[in-house]
Design goal:
A hairpin with a 7-residue loop joins β31 and β32. Among the domains are: about 150 residues, no CATH class; about 170 residues, no CATH class. It is an all-beta fold. The chain is elongated and about 85 Å long.
Length: about 475
């Protein structure tokens, strides 16, 4: 082991292509003479696999390296789940060219690491390993020395998709044809705005989804104007109607917002960026265009491009992406329906509210879906998307705030008969702590009552080995 000057200590903070970071004790009381680097040092570590389902999420797993007396390598977020054994590869970078790395598994077996193409059994490797880095005797520096890292893997103790579903009991469930959106009211109440089968607007409130739902009186929106879109911001609701008008209000009471002369007629509200209300508007020529309405100045500050045919004009769920590794975008939009009324199947992003791009170009829901709903568990950065087709229910979920989606496995549907949802409108919300999802199935006509299903989530428990 060789001591090196403190001046090069910053070189320890290396960031690998896999997003790996290093850390050390930065307390002021640490004596400077104890700070040292080691020739036989690992500067980068990640896991790889050729498994089609795990390849992308495993490659994105971040590992943290600590160069303590015995090195430590850990992953703060749990590895992607797989119930069966699969082949895994180690991608290792070392500080000194020509250094050797030996892998010591939990059973004491030692294997020389050769390259990132070398495969290992996940069942054998992911129960914890040690990595011994050494150089051959006779080298100019550090001859015959070695340094050992303890690698522990944080994994899910059970399938992170685990749900247990059962029929819920509630009083006064609304008979909805489609849900427009929700408002967080006073006293912990949630207000759901929806369209009835006769086309009229309605709203119901609850404090517990399995308790009593009570009708909410609506005022300020003329009869015949259907609710189209809804967005809550700083205690106020902004809604658009089928008459291409914008209203502001709360708890069922609304007043029309007068836009500047010449502004595009508001078709739908999409999201908020600061004090800017992102809209889809209709120009005097009848074309759709993105626009931003400044709530403070009362002006339309910019007008963007025309939405693509597969863009979710109404019903999309907006969410910020600043807390996760999203491709540089600050706002995302998932779900909703296109201008032609079809279920939107792609994920969109924007940095300014007027220019929107498809994320990854991948479909995240079946293109033949009839209805869809997204429940957002904010604390856990989890999103649950339910979609119905002519044959049943589809369930996809995201564990990274909506950037990537995965199809639900059978464990996520335990207790549900998916064919019972064929062709039905659906609406989902999560409990405050994110441990439960409430899935409402509306009726297909005016006489059919809604039904409530409660999903108990049990998949976040982890273990470290």
């Amino acid at each position: 082991m060789r001591r090196t000057p403190l001046a090069i200590f910053g070189a320890l903070a290396l960031l690998t292509s896999a997003g790996l970071t290093t850390s050390c004790n930065k307390q002021n009381s640490t004596p400077l003479e104890n700070v040292q680097t080691i020739d036989n040092q690992i500067t980068g570590f990640s896991l790889l696999t050729d498994d089609s389902l795990l390849k992308e999420p495993l490659a994105k797993t971040i590992f943290t390296i600590r160069h303590s007396e015995t090195g430590q390598i850990t992953n703060p977020q749990a590895l992607p789940y797989r119930a069966t054994d699969y082949k895994v590869k180690l991608n290792i970078q070392v500080a000194v060219r020509g250094a050797h790395v030996d892998i010591i598994t939990a059973d004491g077996q030692t294997t020389r690491w050769t390259s990132s193409t070398q495969t290992f059994s996940s069942e054998k490797l992911l129960h914890g390993i040690r990595l011994r880095v050494s150089q051959d005797n006779g080298g100019d520096s550090g001859a015959g020395t070695s340094y050992t890292y303890r690698v522990t893997f944080k994994r899910y103790a059970a399938d992170p998709q685990t749900f247990s579903w059962s029929a819920g009991s509630a009083t006064g469930l609304p008979a909805f044809a489609s849900v427009i959106g929700t408002e967080q009211g006073t006293g912990g109440a949630t207000i759901v705005y929806y369209l009835q089968h006769n086309g009229s607007n309605a709203a119901s409130s609850f404090t517990s989804a399995t308790g009593t739902w009570s009708p909410v009186a609506l005022s300020g929106i003329p009869a015949g104007e259907k609710l189209v879109s809804l967005l809550q911001h700083e205690g106020k609701l902004y809604v658009t109607t089928s008459a291409h008008k914008l209203y502001r209000g709360s708890q069922g009471s609304f007043t029309e917002v007068a836009l500047p002369s010449g502004s595009p007629a508001p078709v739908s509200v999409l999201a908020m960026l600061g004090s800017q209300l992102c809209l889809v508007g209709q120009t005097s020529s009848g074309a759709l265009a993105f626009a931003r309405y400044d709530l403070t100045a009362g002006t339309v500050t910019s007008q963007g491009h025309r939405p693509q045919t597969d863009f979710p004009i109404t019903g999309g769920i907006p969410y910020q992406g600043s807390s996760a590794p999203y491709q540089g975008a600050s706002l995302y939009l998932a779900g909703g329906r296109t201008a032609s009324g079809k279920v939107a199947s792609t994920l969109w992003s924007t940095t300014n509210g007027t220019d929107w791009l498809v994320v990854d170009g991948r479909s995240v829901v079946a293109t033949d879906a009839l209805h869809q709903t997204i429940a957002h568990s904010h604390g856990a950065q989890r999103l649950y998307r339910f979609a119905t087709t002519q044959s049943g229910l589809l369930f996809t979920l995201s564990r990274d705030g909506g950037h990537s989606w995965e199809d639900a496995r059978s464990t996520a549907l335990s207790g549900l008969t998916t064919s019972n949802f064929a062709g039905y409108p659906v609406f989902a919300i999560t409990s405050a702590d994110g441990t439960q999802v409430y899935l409402l199935r509306g009726g297909r006509n005016t006489t059919e009552p809604s039904r409530l299903y409660v999903g108990q989530f049990g998949g976040l428990r982890t273990t470290t080995e």
